[in-house]
Amino acid sequence: MATVNKKTQCFVCNKEKNTYSCKGCSNEFCFPHLTEHRQKIDTQLETIINDHGRFQQTIIQQKQNSHNSSLFRQIDEWETNSINKIQQTAEECRETLIKLTQALINDMEEKFIKLSQKLKEIREENEFNETDLTNFQVKLTQITEEFLRSSNISIRHDSQEYINKISVISSFGSYPTNHTTISTATTSKNPITTSYKSHFPISVPTIPWNPITPLYKMLTQPQSPIKQKQIQTKKNKFQQFGITVAGGNGKGDELNQLTNPQGIFIDYDKSIYIADQWNHRIVKWELNSNTGQIIGGGNESNQLNSPTDILFDKENNSFIICDMGNNRVIRYYNQNQTNQQTIISNIICWGLTIDKDGFLYVSDWENNEVRRWKQGDKKGELVAGENGKGNHFNQLDYPTFIFVDKDYSLYISDNENHRVMKWKKDAKEGIIVAGGNGQGNSLKQLSNPQGVIVDHLGQIYVADFSNHRVMRWCEGDKEGEIVVGENGSGIQSNQLNWPTGLSFDDEENLYVADAGNHRIQKFVIDLN
């Protein structure tokens, strides 16, 4: 590094001494200051070596974790958002297709019923000939072919981009041409739509499937329940101002009035069947009607006593009524009050539900249990409760309305425990799926829950009776959300007063028995 010279001036101390020349900086240093100068150079070298080591470690880490950069996270976020958007729209298309298919079925069913009535008439009157039979055969063939063809429903692909494309752009100065490299990811420009007559189309993109891409794997591999919950379609929202579709003319027993309505049932033609409890009758309100018609009770010869629930048994073409005050469950055939049958006796019943196999479930609020009955049973099979009144998981306290899903899981409004319990098939105890945090009005609590129904996404709707609102819970959530009735007790269209029964129509509009206001409110699904 340095060579010795005769006495010259030191660069540091400016004294005449034997000095040493530094070839790096070409300065002269006496020995002490040469040593000091050397130490400074060594320190600089160590700094460079340390910087070199840190950079080397950075390169190693980048090689090992090359997919953890913020750019990859941006790509992952784009992919997730695209998947959510695709799956949401796909679900909307499925729901639209279900509704359109149901509309087609209803239309065909109406034509078939009319044809059946005519066929029955000529058979009873014994007035027909070969021409009549030929005409009937032609009409039946036409209806059958029209139903099987379903040609008025189709899937349409729109020629527009549905998902915004992203690009990876990089410029490398070391390349001979200093060129720019661009790699682009995008979806196909062919969304699909489900369309039917005047219905608005709903678009969903098709994606070029590549079995090795994460997008393909995410969409085709089974998802965990948590992941499914994250990507499911958004929850339904409802307009907050309800429409009065039955009653609403004060408390009374006139045909345009109700008194403390309880359970309700919505038919396919949107007729509403109501357990008009304190009028001791079942009434039917047709769509857009100003008055109801009595189909059960309401007279001296065939009395009901405080009916609380009603359902329709498709298999037997009959209504089943919880005649609570008479301690029985009865069946009405063809809306004929004279043709009734007591199917369960000596039961303090409140709620009814029926599963896909035709088994009837009845809540017994006196014995704090729910039993399942099949036709002809003398004593139903216990499915929930019967462990005395209490708040343990195997107990109930005043069970009211109930609902059974396609998996035979039973949902019970456990009124005095201020919770909704779910009892899976053959379970020895239930789990809390709503409330269960004492009586109160926070989003974690319920107060004397009544009506309970579950939608196709497994979301649980509860008539929060004493809080004058309808809540929605998802199993596993710590708190629910207010669906309608967040404006306190009252008679305004955006208020409820002691809500009881709940039901959906085939368009997923929500119906609420607003017992304290003696009316039925319809809350239309908000599509915006």
Brief description of this entry?
The protein has 528 residues and is an alpha+beta fold.
- Low-confidence parts lasting 5 or more residues at pLDDT below 50? 172-233
- Here the CATH topology of the largest domain equals Neuraminidase
Can you tell me the number of structural domains? 3
CATH superfamily of the largest domain: TolB, C-terminal domain
Strand percentage lies at 25-35%
SS field, number of helical segments: 5
Main sheet specs: 4 strands, antiparallel
The CATH architecture of the largest domain: 6 Propeller
Helix proportion range: 10-25%
InterPro entries: 6-blade_b-propeller_TolB-like (IPR011042), NHL_repeat (IPR001258), TRIM-NHL_E3_ligases (IPR050952)
Keywords: Coiled coil, Repeat
NHL repeats: 440-470, 495-526
Pfam families: NHL (PF01436)
List keywords for this structure.
Neuraminidase; four-stranded antiparallel beta sheet; single chain; 32 strands; alpha+beta; 528 residues
Question: What does this protein structure show overall?
Answer:
This protein has 528 residues and is α+β, with helices and mostly antiparallel strands. It has three domains: 7-66, no CATH class; 70-156, no CATH class; 237-526, TolB, C-terminal domain (Neuraminidase, 6 Propeller). 23% of the residues lie in helices and 33% in strands. It contains five helices and 32 strands. It has helices at residues 31-64, 70-125, 130-149, 214-220, 225-231, and strands at residues 2-9, 16-22, 28-30, 154-157, 166-171, 180-185, 191-195, 202-205, 243-247, 261-266, 272-276, 281-285, 293-297, 309-313, 318-323, 328-333, 336-345, 349-354, 360-364, 369-373, 381-385, 399-404, 410-414, 419-423, 431-435, 449-454, 460-464, 469-473, 481-484, 499-504, 510-514, 519-523. Strands 9-32-31-30 form a four-stranded antiparallel β-sheet, with no helix packed on it. A hairpin with a 4-residue loop joins β15 (318-323) and β16. Mean pLDDT is 81; it is low at 172-233. Keywords: Coiled coil, Repeat. GO terms for molecular function: zinc ion binding.
